Amino acid sequence: MKYLVHLSEKSEQDIREIYEYIAYTLLAPMNAETVFDRITNAVLSLSEMPERHKIYKTGKNGERIRFLVSGNHIIFYWVDHSANQVNVVRILYGGIDVDRELDFQG
Question: Taking Cα atoms as reference points, which of 58, 56, 80, 81 lies closest to residue 66?
Fold first, then answer.
């Protein structure tokens, strides 16, 4: 069964900020494209068998927050079986304190 993959506003902002940081701060636009493509492909892969990845913790509303590592970044999401949907809540750099950054309200 295929799932619809939905990105929260915050996860869309995360991926924009990742791209902009690499392209404009690190002055590596080619690397920014590569990282963007890698993250995008990882997110889209969640449309099939999204529960194959480990549970990180349970969210505020009882959803099981799972994670997928893509290079130096971690994609956090939960699966809504009733809507056949995967909800990506954050995309974070793995070198930060992710517990402090996570907002399970998406």
Answer: 56
Rounded to 5 degrees, φ, ψ at 86 are -105, 130
Amino acid residing at 89:
V
| Coil vs helix vs strand at 77 | strand
Q: What is the pLDDT of residues 22-50, one digit of tens each?
A: 999 999 999 999 999 999 999 999 999 99
Q: Which tokens go with 83?
A: 């809507």
CB 28 within 8 A of CB 106: no
Q: Which CATH architecture has domain 4-99?
A: 2-Layer Sandwich (3.30)
Question: From the DSSP assignment, how many helices (H) and strands (E) are in the chain?
Answer: 3, 5
State pTM to two decimals: 0.92
